[in-house]
Amino acid sequence: MSKILVIAEHLGGKLNSSTARAVSAAAAIKGDAIDVLVLSDAPDAIAAEAAKIEGVSRVLTVTKPENAHPLAAVLAPQIAKAADGYSYVFAPSTTFGKDIAPRVAALLGVAQVSDVMTVEAAHTFKRPIYAGNAIITVEADANHTVVATIRTASWSAAASGANAAPVEALTIDVPLPTHTRFVKLNQGSSDRPDLQSAAKVVSGGRGVGSTENFDIIYKFADKIGAAVGASRAAVDAGYCPNEMQVGQTGKIIAPELYMAIGISGAIQHLTGIKDAGTIVAINKDGEAPIFEVADFGLVGDLFKIIPELEVALG
C-alpha cells in the first residue's frame, strides 16, 4: 500500500497555497492515499482548510505548544515519527520545506530528492540542476521512504472546496531538542498581492537605477494589480528589500504574466521565472539575455515606455 504524507505549510493560522501544490504532486504518484500533516499549537482552522483540498484522504494534526513557530529542529523529529508506514513524505520547496525536509530525510536515513518538477513513475522524478540549465531524471530507492521537496512553480494548486476529508488528531511522543528556540519573526508586509502566488508580477532590475526610481515599478504594478519583484542586482544595490528577490537564490515563481523591467536576464534570474505563462521584457539593451526567453520584448528607455503603457491602459 502506497501512502503519501504531505507536510502542511502555514503561517498566522492560514494554510499556504504551496501545500495544495504539493498535493498535486502527490496525486501524480497515483498512490492509495494522500494525508496532510499539520503541526501547530492550534491546528483546527488550518486543518479545516487542508481538508477541503481535492485528493486529500485525511488531515492529521499534532498539537503541541512547541509547534507554535515552524522551527525545523522541533518539527522534524515529529514528522519522522508520523512518517512511519508512509512510502513518501512531500514538502513544498519553499524556505519552510527546504529547512525541514533535509532533517526529516536524515532522521529516516534516506537521501532527499529536491525540487521535483514532474513525476515520471512511482520512484522516478525530474528536477532542475545547474541553475535550471539542465533537467535531470532521478530514481529513488523503492525500498525506502521517499522524502522530497516539490518545486511549487511547476505544479498548479489542487482544487479546493469540494472535498471534506476527515481530521484526526495524532499523539506523537518524541523528545524535542531545546538547543533551538524562536526569538522573533522579521517579515515584510505589503498591501500588494503575494509574490509567490500572484497571477501578475512586475519586477525591476539594475536598470531602474535607484531606490527612488523604483517607484515607477511600484506604481505600474499597482496600476495592473500585480505583485512586485526584483532581480538580485537590484536587491544587492539596495533598491528594494531581499524578500522581493526573484531567481535561483530568491523566490521561484510561475505567474500568468511576468514583466521584467530593466533586468538583463542572468541565468540565476531566469531560473526563477522559467514556468511563467507570458514573459514581457523591457530593456534598453537589445542584446540582453532576457529577450531570448521573452514572449514580448520592448527595446528602449523604461522611463519613457512605462508612462506610455500606463496611458495606453487608461
TrEMBL record:
<dbReference type="InterPro" id="IPR029035">
    <property type="entry name" value="DHS-like_NAD/FAD-binding_dom"/>
</dbReference>
<keyword id="KW-0274">FAD</keyword>
<dbReference type="InterPro" id="IPR014729">
    <property type="entry name" value="Rossmann-like_a/b/a_fold"/>
</dbReference>
<dbReference type="Pfam" id="PF01012">
    <property type="entry name" value="ETF"/>
</dbReference>
<dbReference type="InterPro" id="IPR014731">
    <property type="entry name" value="ETF_asu_C"/>
</dbReference>
<dbReference type="InterPro" id="IPR018206">
    <property type="entry name" value="ETF_asu_C_CS"/>
</dbReference>
<dbReference type="InterPro" id="IPR033947">
    <property type="entry name" value="ETF_alpha_N"/>
</dbReference>
<protein>
    <submittedName>
        <fullName>Electron transfer flavoprotein subunit alpha/FixB family protein</fullName>
    </submittedName>
</protein>
<dbReference type="Pfam" id="PF00766">
    <property type="entry name" value="ETF_alpha"/>
</dbReference>
<keyword id="KW-0249">Electron transport</keyword>
<keyword id="KW-0813">Transport</keyword>
<dbReference type="InterPro" id="IPR001308">
    <property type="entry name" value="ETF_a/FixB"/>
</dbReference>
<keyword id="KW-0285">Flavoprotein</keyword>
<comment type="similarity">
    <text>Belongs to the ETF alpha-subunit/FixB family.</text>
</comment>
<feature type="domain" description="Electron transfer flavoprotein alpha/beta-subunit N-terminal">
    <location>
        <begin position="4"/>
        <end position="186"/>
    </location>
</feature>
<dbReference type="InterPro" id="IPR014730">
    <property type="entry name" value="ETF_a/b_N"/>
</dbReference>
